[in-house]
Amino acid sequence: MNTAIIEQEPKLLPGDLAIWFFIFMELLVFGIAFISYAVVRVQNEDMFNQFQLTLNTELGAINTIVLITSSYFVVRAVHTIKNHGDYIGCSHWLYAAIAGGGVFLVLKSFEYYDKFSAGISLSTNTFYMFYLSLTMFHFLHVILGMIILLAIAIKAQRGGYSASNHIGVESGASYWHMVDLVWIILFPLVYVMR
Amino acid sequence: MRSYFNIHTIWIALILLTLSTYAMGALGFSGLPIVIVLLLTAAIKGVLIISEFMELRGVSLLWRVIMYGWLWTVIIVIAITYAITI
């Protein structure tokens, strides 16, 4: 009689469901922007290949590593609160992740300074229009992600999260990973592929 | 403990994949086969971030379809546009 099949229930999404709808919406917008870049490039291949060479691929690659590492710090923050209930340790990992975001913004600002001082703007040509608008849109998301992580880090530092209550940490972590995920496609698409 | 070790490994794998992408650009590689390799590298990195960093492994099929569907749709459409031009 004991032939009941034990079915494993699917895991719940980490974090709050609302943040996931926000993430899906953001991904849709970035996805359309990436596809637009690729489609417009079909008609302007020579121009895109020519001006892509003016981008600083070294800084782009370093920034990719910085964002990946920052995401890794956020994973460590989630593990620290979830598995050990260590809210101070969690906040330290989050501050490290925020610092990573700060490094990304500084390096990106150097890149923008270089371009703007050379007289390049959104209206210079179609390639730079895409390069500047895509990366600046992402830049704003890094800032928003840092603000979210900072709010969570401060709350964690004050003991606002525990091993049994860490949904806020997971929500912020999911958003930050989305920012990383988008850059993972943006970097090869805009800086490398030709 | 095993999953904790995996997170370190995944972080290092993501960095190595990034360095391979950079190297292909720095060496001036171009052409459709290179574009396919670069897109597959980005897709692998995306899968690792979605499944391991975002911890979506084992969640309901609907959420995984949305996330992986987004990733592969973007990758495949970009690949098609490059296949047209190169």
UniProtKB/TrEMBL annotation, chain A:
Residue ranges occupied by any Heme-copper oxidase subunit III family profile domain in the UniProt entry: 17-194
Stored InterPro entries: Cyt_c/ubiquinol_Oxase_su3 (IPR024791), Cyt_c_oxidase-like_su3 (IPR000298), Cyt_c_oxidase_su3-like_sf (IPR035973), Cyt_c_oxidase_su3_a-hlx (IPR013833)
Cellular compartments annotated: Cell membrane; Membrane
PANTHER family tied to this protein: CYTOCHROME C OXIDASE SUBUNIT III, NITRIC OXIDE REDUCTASE SUBUNIT E
Keywords on record: Membrane, Transmembrane, Transmembrane helix
Biological processes annotated in GO: aerobic electron transport chain
Name under which the protein is recorded: Nitric oxide reductase NorE protein
Gene3D superfamilies: Cytochrome c oxidase, subunit III, four-helix bundle
SUPFAM superfamilies hit by this protein: Cytochrome c oxidase subunit III-like
GO molecular function: cytochrome-c oxidase activity
Membrane topology summary: Multi-pass membrane protein
Family the UniProt entry places it in: Belongs to the cytochrome c oxidase subunit 3 family.
Coiled coil: none
Annotated transmembrane regions: 17-40, 61-81, 93-110, 130-154, 174-193
Chief location category: membrane
Any one GO CC term of the record: plasma membrane
From TrEMBL, chain B:
Highest taxon above the source species: Bacteria
Transmembrane helix among keywords: yes
Keyword terms of this UniProt record: Cell membrane, Membrane, Transmembrane, Transmembrane helix
GO CC annotation: plasma membrane
Chief location category: membrane
InterPro entries reported in the protein's UniProt record: Cyt_c_oxidase_su4_prok
Locations listed in the record: Cell membrane
Membrane topology of the entry: Multi-pass membrane protein
Transmembrane domains' residue ranges: 35-54, 61-84
This protein's name: Cytochrome c oxidase subunit IV
